[in-house]
Design goal:
The complex is a heterodimer of chains A (171) and B (285). Chain A is mostly helical and 171 residues long. Helix content of chain A is 74%, strand content 0%. In chain A, α1 packs parallel to α3 and α1 runs antiparallel to α7. Chain B has 2 domains: 65 residues, no CATH class; 152 residues, Thrombin, subunit H. The chains are: A mainly alpha (171), B alpha+beta (285).
Chain lengths: 171, 285
Amino acid sequence: MLSFKFIKEKFIKSLPLVILYFLSLNSFVLVNDIPNVDVFSFNLQMIIIYFYALKFPEYLGFGHVFLIGIFKDVLIGTPLGSTALCYLVLCLVATYLRNVTLRPRLASEWFTFVPALFFSNATYFTIINNFSNLSFYYVELLRVTFFTFLFFPIFYFFLNSHLKLYNKDNA
Amino acid sequence: MAEQRDDLLIALRYALLKKGTKQKFSLFFLIIVSVLVIILDKLSYSYITKTRAVLNDFIYQVAIVTSSPEKFTKYLIDRGIHHYSVYDENNLLKEQNAELKAQLVNNQFLKTENEMLKEALKLSSNKSIEQDVSVIAKVVIDQESPYLKSFLLNKGTSDGVKKGMTVFSDKYLIGTIVEANYLTSRVLLINDLNSKIPVIIQDSNVNAILSGQGVKRRMVLDYLPEQYQLEPGRNIYTSGKDGILAAGIAVGETYYNEKDKIVEVRTLADLDQTLFVQITNGQLR
């Protein structure tokens, strides 16, 4: 029989995936809907994917990351598979950093987010430029990337709280 | 040096090939699948296009359901904002109405005069191009994206929508259909960076290309003659030189930007407020 504790545990554990699927299927980006604040728009999905791929990859199946990218491609209208590959490259860099890091710290994880974002966006540029006729809002993408990097510590705190909640329940 | 390179390769190989706990696929496998998907999408064979159309329809339907709470929240916020601006809007509309009534009388005279002159010159009436398809569609998803400015509509090829058709909102051109699935379609908005429309400026013979900027309603006019100064308050119409859009469709207007102290161009339709659109394969009647 399903106990309340079991359901709660499942829910807490799958929360990042639920949020990622929700974000990929929705146009909802909080700051985009507030006039004069939309300049601070950032990519929350990248923060979540990087964080979990770096710290707790078992919470975030790479198959799900692939599917989330496909959903996003279909909804935005970019070449199918481009966002999926971009997210997978982010996971790859995060997994590599996880393997070579001995003592993880917020500062080091924050600054290693820069190469992760760089490789991920470079992959995206390459695909868009070679596999589609789309023009890019380079400045806007740069701005979104910058704020994604800037807001990482804030979400690091929230996502860490989620992990603590899960670990406390399992203790 | 060689040891460092070996360490890097080992770590990278481990990251690519090692399946973590509860991971069904390795990163290497998924990256290969992604690359294959990109290549197959680029090849655009008929069966791939059909499969993609089915996938698009499925994901759009799921997205419509999941985005309904968000749409309801937006609706409530808009209603709240609208409620507080009704009085000012009413006064403005009264002024505009009086002005338009005066213009209407003048236009009716000009129309009659135009028809008389055409008859005298034995010119056939300038009928717009094919108008046999006109579909009313609802905007189901307005995806905020830094890359593409587009709407998803709830009508597709089953309703006669085809790629390349023109889309209007409140009788103003807002974009063209760039993707037609069986149940849904995507319209590329005129404010998108990829949108280029040949236009003519009101009360002049000046031709230009109207390009999107991806920023709300703001647009720019490219290839204007040298030394040409834009004046505020001029409408911008399609020139029809591309052979796709009919001539004379209202697209934008020039206005004076108080903040930057320059004359700029903006779309006539408020794209953020668009809910229903009309899809035609020519100009609106």
